[in-house]
Amino acid sequence: MNWKTLLMIGLILTAFTATSVLAIDGGNSRKGKPLFKRNCKSCHNAGGEGGEVTPMSKTMAQWDRYFKKKAKKHPGDVIKNLSKKDLKDINQFLFDKAADSPSPETCG
Ligand code: HEC
């Protein structure tokens, strides 16, 4: 196998992974749900200071983009104070229940 073949395989694998079901590796949706409720819901309920945010507020792609880029600019220290792992779990939960996911959830 020459390097071009290897590169092709690499590209195909990358494309496949990017569009497969898992948002980010290592995220645990089941842990993410209580984390989201505990850390986010206080401000993100209807009438809360951050406005209502539920998994269904965004699509799967939007959630991944949010956590990749915008989460750093979230007001206050909530996001900064969470561990990378907890954030991954929250990201995974929101992704799995996103508006265009197979099982959208409003999350009470
Ligand atoms: C201390 C209150 C507070 C907490 C806790 C909090 N947020 Fe926020 N959040 C805000 C505020 C304020 C905004 C800005 C709202 C705006 O610009 O309209 C915001 C904005 C957001 C937005 C953008 C909303 C949009 O329409 O795109 C998202 C997504 C978000 N927060 C997610 C989270 C997540 C996930 C957590 C938990 C890890 C969290 N927030 C915890 C106050 C909070």
Your description of this structure?
Helix content is 50%, strand content 0%. α3 packs antiparallel against α5 (84-96). The chain has helices at residues 3-19, 29-39, 60-68, 78-81, 84-96. By secondary structure, it is an all-alpha fold. It starts with a helix and ends in a 12-residue tail after the last helix. It has one domain (28-108): Cytochrome Bc1 Complex, Chain D, domain 2 (Orthogonal Bundle). Bound molecules: heme C. Heme C is lined by residues 39-40, 42-44, 49-51, 53, 66, 74-76, 78-79, 82, 90.
What's the quick description here?
The chain is an all-alpha fold and 108 residues long. 50% of the residues lie in helices and 0% in strands.
What would the keywords be for this entry?
108 residues, mainly alpha, Cytochrome Bc1 Complex, Chain D, domain 2, 5 helices, 50% helix, elongated, binds heme C
- The overall strand count is 0
Q: Which ligands occur here?
A: heme C
Portion in beta strands? under 5%
CATH topology: Cytochrome Bc1 Complex, Chain D, domain 2
User: What are the segments in which pLDDT stays under 50 over at least 5 consecutive residues?
Assistant: none
Annotated CATH architecture: Orthogonal Bundle
Overall number of domains = 1
Major sheet description: none
